[in-house]
Amino acid sequence: MSLDLAPDTPATTPEARAPLTPSALRTIVRELAEQPEQWIHHVRLSTEERWYRRLAADDDHEVWLISWLPGQSTGFHDHGGSRGAFTVALGELEELSLGGTEQGLLIRRVQSGTVRAFGPDYVHDVRNTASGPAVTLHAYSPPLSSMAHYDLRAGGLVRTSEEGPDQW
Ligand SMILES: [Fe+2]
């Protein structure tokens, strides 16, 4: 079947909206953390794995609530090209990433109230190494479409698997 379109028919594909900046995402999670009445009643804890729930989603970003029991961690992962920000609303976490001129391992304590924001290529491992639970708020733009996992080996990060939205 052929479509007989006039040559001056405008394209119907909507223009992709520009993703929010890490700075804008930082503001979203910081302001949400200051309004616990918006999310604290949703929090659950799971001994099976990190518990998570999507709080909001629209065309250009989404917001997630995650709880972490002691010992729970993400492993090294990317965000499929999305920009992101997260804040620790309760408790504290540890964040591992590679950086510096030698791409060495950086370990950072992320205390309650701290906001971390990152660009589309960021890879990190977030873990609860404290003795009590933690609760975090995350924003991603565009909304997460995939997430690859990595192993940290002697030569650096090695991509091991990838998951999509049907797996979370
Ligand atoms: Fe992450």
UniProtKB/TrEMBL annotation:
Q: Write out the coiled-coil annotation as residue ranges.
A: none
Gene Ontology molecular function: dioxygenase activity
Q: Which InterPro entries match?
A: CDO_1, RmlC-like_jellyroll, RmlC_Cupin_sf
SUPFAM superfamilies for the chain: RmlC-like cupins
**Which residues belong to the signal peptide in this entry?**
none
The reply to whether Ribosomal protein figures as a keyword in the UniProt entry is no
Keyword vocabulary terms for this entry: Dioxygenase, Iron, Metal-binding, Oxidoreductase
Q: Which family does it belong to?
A: Belongs to the cysteine dioxygenase family.
- Tell me the protein's name: Cysteine dioxygenase family protein
